[in-house]
């Protein structure tokens, strides 16, 4: 059975992505500290000489490492997305098989049988399909309690699967100005929130 193995791999990938993000955050914090050169800032002074107030080789090394981490983060995120598609397909397949078995029990040849199919545990439910990497100030997402790094498991009736963007947009539009249940993973713990899609001064209904 593929789903449990893929789920375990996906959780490991998510841990790996979290470690990459932590290292990126640390590098960005060092580069953007007061007096620092920034992520892309120049390393020469106003007269065109190398800045004497910073360790230029170290800055260059950190910038290279940050670029490597961003590439690795992109690769890991893509792998997570592909695994989520596999898991969703496996879930649909099991649901179809379960429906077929229930339909078969209506056949008279099954009446009187003392055996029954054990209920199969759903190994797919609970996998996040998106991570919050940006929140606009004053947006519904910000006001209603979402935080950077939150991983979205369920938004209203929407879970991981195909045509995700279209389903998320439809769910938000159909619930404008109404509370929508939201299940997230925050720092390893499952958290239940409510969010109200609504118009604000920025783009979209959530921000």
UniProtKB/TrEMBL annotation:
Region entry Disordered, spans: 90-121
One GO term (biological process): proteasome regulatory particle assembly
InterPro entries assigned: Nas2_N (IPR040815), PDZ (IPR001478), PDZ_sf (IPR036034), PSMD9 (IPR035269)
Protein name (database record): 26S proteasome non-ATPase regulatory subunit 9
Domain PDZ: 89-188
Pfam families: Nas2_N (PF18265)
Organism taxonomic ancestry: Eukaryota, Viridiplantae, Streptophyta, Embryophyta, Tracheophyta
Gene3D superfamilies per UniProt: 2.30.42.10, 6.10.140.1710
SMART domains cross-referenced by the UniProt entry: PDZ
Keyword DNA-binding on entry: no
Annotated keywords: Chaperone, Proteasome
Species of provenance: Zea mays
GO CC, alphabetical: proteasome complex
């Amino acid at each position: 059975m593929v789903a449990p193995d893929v789920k375990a791999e996906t959780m490991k990938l998510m841990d790996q992505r979290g470690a990459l993000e932590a290292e990126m955050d640390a590098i960005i914090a060092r580069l953007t500290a007061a007096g620092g050169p920034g992520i892309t800032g120049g390393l020469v002074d106003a007269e065109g000489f190398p800045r004497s107030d910073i360790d230029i080789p170290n800055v260059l090394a950190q910038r290279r490492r940050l670029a490597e981490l961003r590439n690795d983060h992109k690769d890991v995120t893509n792998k997570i997305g592909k695994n989520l598609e596999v898991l969703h397909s496996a879930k649909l397949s099991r649901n179809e098989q379960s429906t077929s078995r229930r339909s078969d029990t209506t056949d008279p040849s099954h009446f009187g049988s003392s055996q029954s199919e054990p209920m199969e545990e759903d190994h797919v439910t609970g996998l996040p399909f998106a991570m919050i990497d940006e929140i606009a100030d004053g947006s519904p997402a910000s006001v209603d309690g979402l935080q950077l790094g939150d991983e979205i498991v369920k938004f209203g009736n929407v879970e991981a699967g195909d045509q995700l963007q279209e389903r998320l947009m439809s769910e938000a539009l159909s619930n404008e100005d109404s509370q929508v249940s939201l299940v997230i993973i925050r720092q390893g713990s499952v958290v239940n929130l409510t969010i109200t899609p609504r118009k604000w001064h920025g783009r979209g209904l959530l921000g």
